[in-house]
Amino acid sequence: MARTPRAEAGAPPSADDRAPAGAWTAPEKSTPAMRQYLEMKARHPDALLFFQMGDFYEMFYEDARQAAKALELALTSRQSDADGPIPMCGVPIHAYAPYCARLLEAGYKVAICDQIGNPAEAKGVVRREVVRVLTPGTAVADPRFLDSKESQYLAGLLPGKEGWGLAWADITTGEFHALEIGGSRPESLLAGELERLRPREVLLPQGAAMPAPAQARLREMSARVEARSAQAFAPGTAGERLAGQFPEEPSMGEIARAHPAAAGAAAALLEFVRENQPGGLPHLRPVAFGRLADVMVLDAATQRNLDLVRSAADGGKKGTLFHLLDETLTGMGGRLLKKWVLAPLVSAAAVAHRADAVEEFVENASLRLGLRESLRSVQDLERILGRVGLQTANARDLCGLGASLAALPSLGARLEETRAAALRQLAEGWDPLEELAGELRRAIVDDPPAGIRDGGMFRDGVDPELDRLRLAGREGKSWLTAYEARERERTGLPVKVGFNRVFGFYLELTKRFSDQAPPEYTRKQTLVSAERYITPELKKIEEDVLGAEEKAKELEFLLFGRLRARVGADSKRLLAAADRVARLDALAALAEVAARRGYVRPAVDEGEAIEIAEGRHPVIEADAASPSFVPNDLEIGGERQVLILTGPNMSGKSTYLRQCALIVLMAQMGSFVPARSARIGRVDRVFTRVGAHDRLLDGQSTFMVEMVETAAILREATPRSFVVLDEVGRGTSTYDGVSIAWAVVEFLHNSERCRPRTLFATHYHELAELAKVLPRVRNLTVEVREWGEEVVFLRKVIEGSCDRSYGIHVGRLAGLPPEVIARARELLAGFEAAPEARGVPRRPPRAGKGAREQLSLFAGPPSPAEEALRELFPDRMTPREALDALYSLKSLLKSGRIEDPDGLG
């Protein structure tokens, strides 16, 4: 049998891994069920097919191999085909949801094939159909398997004339955005946006080549890539298609035409979602076309290097800035806060607008605590509305919605007390939605069932017909109890009334009394220890009881559909309320962290300087396992444009660099910061080159990664940027490394276009000499105390430079054998005794415009004076011969064939 090509080990299949439908053909000896399986698989060759067989979903062939590996299932086999035993694995139908969620998380597409007919009534093979197709970007998973603080994005990409169109949507919340990415390096910006969004699935026109940086990001996050027809992305019809989805937005078509690449990507995304969610998308919000210039763009390297939302160590949340700041109490508030972390503001006025609200919450603790107490009862309104729009919401969702809406009046009342403009904007037009909240509370019971077809969702009094049917059902059960008592009295036998789904109600007698059964008892079932009977009267009661119960369930299902539609009709008002609650939650969370940890409000202005007094690393300081944190200052900008930080290994240089970058980002989020005081001259972008790691899957070594990231910084930084560079050049030889590091500092200092505020940490102590020749370079070092062979790292950053790395001391702390430490000290002493033999420059090259003299870092051939000096033997010379030799050496120096180091010529 022809099979789909195997995907890369451990990776989900991409669009290129599909087999054509005709490739799935059944061997001659296949069973009818396997023929049916192969027919379904041919229709969905790019999906893992969950094929119902009884109480299990089974997978076969390559699907089984991939699913078994991804889900850690046992791979078994069934009867052979022409290629040998057929691999298979399966999961129970009643527990398939978590398995399916894991496959979607890993980037797989899943097709669910259910048994449609009743196996007991089927003639031949039971009929099966694919009832739904789940993709990572369009599946609406059980809320239990969704991270409430994570968005579930589907993205579309379209190459444009000068860059890329990017659209993304989260159908679980209705969020829908698009923008165009241009500039001199759109590939880098695109990779950064993909890292920020982390889409689970990406749509791309067939034949389009995705940039290598974007491919690397998607591969790292196991995103599924789906190739779609070019027609789906056609910009010429995109405006019309988007306007058709959002008729309430009359300007949608015009806006789309102004952003053709973004609109084309959005239209393709919309078409794909419609295919996979045929029930409609009433909750999907109109496309919000944005601009990268509205927020601070953080490239993929900076997001990773600073551990903003994912730890570089394990990919988790712990140890990240978001984990520290996330004191939100609602899912939508948490998702909004994460967006703020990944997209700080670039306007000083916008920063102040948000920070004013945070400050009011910090200063007014009773207001903050009261609001947060009310927020505790608010569930994830956005995702509930998403399920309502997709018609998957159940009674528990509507019950939670009602309880959430009940908190809106108190939240609105508390906002009336506020003064900050951002909070006043939230208070103005606050919609308490009291009518809908009342309807939901009156309709749905406090603890409804998960299913919507089994009844038990509505309170008594909601519908007269439902009340009548329920009464009939209750009375019918009373009749059964009375009937059992009458039969016992009439027959004198210990008869019992029972029920099962196959035979309905029955009368049961044990074997001991079965031969005494009255003639009107009709035997229905024989058991080992009992006989079961029915009577005409019992069947009549059964019809009344079961009929009433079934009718009540059907009516509840109908009533629930109406109530769900009623909620959907108010989706605009509900989404507006959700937006306001999310903002309120995120602002209060930032204030809660600030109050709890003693943060201060920074001043963000249009100046050049960044001044931080007693700054602290927010994440390390919060770690209970860390010792007391040593605060440090930063003063950078203007005449202190480039700060070169030297110091021992393990002294805290990297921590200091990350700390300063995080404080800048927090300030421009509108957050308070961990410092005694802070003034931030507005930053347009933060760049970091920190840490060392390989990208083996991309064929990039540690040094190549370092150079790629450094090159991007040198291309894209501006005078408004803040650049953090740590140990540039350490991934190669000493001579190459110090040369590159030196040249990078010169470029950052001298470039007319660039000149960003730069923190440059290095173990190349020779770079400290740059402060003598470059006017805007200053030296910093980390203070150290030595007592004999003991070294204490004080973690304090001070003015000055360091000429030792104390690497041997660090090796001793790490547990290197004493003999290794002793030998290392011996070698170090030898190297330090002959610095010129190592080619280390004793002075910096002259820096300036035009041609510059550069000292070689490598030892050159010996000069004539050196050769002459080697031929002299002082112990054998008379005083006169020694004097003549000295004049001869002086003559060689004067001839210019060797530089006079002392300038005595």
From TrEMBL:
Residues 721-737 form the DNA mismatch repair proteins mutS family domain. InterPro entries: DNA_mismatch_repair_MutS, DNA_mismatch_repair_MutS-lik_N, DNA_mismatch_repair_MutS/MSH, DNA_mismatch_repair_MutS_C, DNA_mismatch_repair_MutS_clamp, DNA_mismatch_repair_MutS_core, DNA_mismatch_repair_MutS_N, DNA_mismatch_repair_MutS_sf. GO terms for cellular component: cytosol. Coiled coil: none annotated. Pfam families: MutS_I (PF01624), MutS_II (PF05188), MutS_III (PF05192), MutS_IV (PF05190), MutS_V (PF00488). GO terms for molecular function: ATP binding; ATP-dependent DNA damage sensor activity; damaged DNA binding; mismatched DNA binding. Keywords: ATP-binding, DNA damage, DNA repair, DNA-binding, Nucleotide-binding. PROSITE patterns: DNA_MISMATCH_REPAIR_2 (PS00486). ATP binds at residues 647-654. GO terms for biological process: mismatch repair. The keyword Cytoplasm does not apply. CDD domains: ABC_MutS1. Residues 1-27, 838-863 are annotated as: Disordered. HAMAP family: MutS. Belongs to the DNA mismatch repair MutS family. This protein is involved in the repair of mismatches in DNA. It is possible that it carries out the mismatch recognition step. This protein has a weak ATPase activity. This is DNA mismatch repair protein MutS.
